[in-house]
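Q: Structure for this?
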Amino acid sequence: MGRWEADAGGRLQYAAMSLYFERGYDAVTVAEIAERAGLTKRTFFRHYADKREVLFAGAPAFQAGVVAAVAAAPVDQAPVDTVIAALAETGGAQLAQYGEWARARRDLVESSADLRERALIKSADLAAAVAAALRERGVAPGQATLTAHAAVTAFTVGYDRWADGNGVGDLPTAVRETLADLRTALTPG
Amino acid sequence: MGRWEADAGGRLQYAAMSLYFERGYDAVTVAEIAERAGLTKRTFFRHYADKREVLFAGAPAFQAGVVAAVAAAPVDQAPVDTVIAALAETGGAQLAQYGEWARARRDLVESSADLRERALIKSADLAAAVAAALRERGVAPGQATLTAHAAVTAFTVGYDRWADGNGVGDLPTAVRETLADLRTALTPG
């Protein structure tokens, strides 16, 4: 967790997750998070809009990384392979930091309607950004939308499987295996 | 729109959608919806929790219809074909009522972060209910989750395409064509 403690944003994130795990999301206030981090409420609100956002602090960097990887990918790849590689490699580099906390964080998000809504919005925004990046590369709009949604589904379910394994296995491998399973699931009878 | 006007719930839905289209979602109050429908605020809150829910009034019946169709489907079908048939036929029967309002309703949902969140929650709940119905039929949990998510994606995008066409075409056909496009999008390079 060294990276999280380096600056105020990281300390607040660490403090928030620790408190949410200890007492449940609803019971924790912003004042308590700030106190645990040794900072003020004012500093909290300079970094995060509310006590939900602190759990999704990495989302903008993750989305930007995925979009950049899609833009930089070889042009001779199938779009779905481009997107899965971008999600898996960026996720492996940026989300693997949750490590042993991955499962607990996922369960925390599932425990609250508020957090679940925010997570769904983040996924939908990510899919929309990926679809736009594919259209930039000349992929037809209909195919771009479906490819983005399917790849984000494979990533999300693959991430869940990785989190179920307590973040011990390799995230990119879990995502690629999930894409293969998604193809199998879509095979006509 | 005859069906909506038959009872208080339907009259409130019709009044709400008319007002949202006229003035935008944010500008309309529950009191105005009730007044337009010739009913009281108290009657509104007997039917709907808030001014968001009135736009998703059909969701519980739609989800129940889809789950029942999955449970009743022939057992020799591929799970994805079972789910797409359930979504397409139930959607064709229940959502086609929006008719010429389908595109305007979809644009309205996209216009508001609140409504978009609610729509995403409804889709996630639908996918979870479909996955549970598949597990009931003996489909392995991992395959059930992926099949449900992929099928709901095909339905959602197919519904959007149908709405783009102003609800004139056939919804089940749009959904089946979108599933075919999703399979193409997932073909490896």
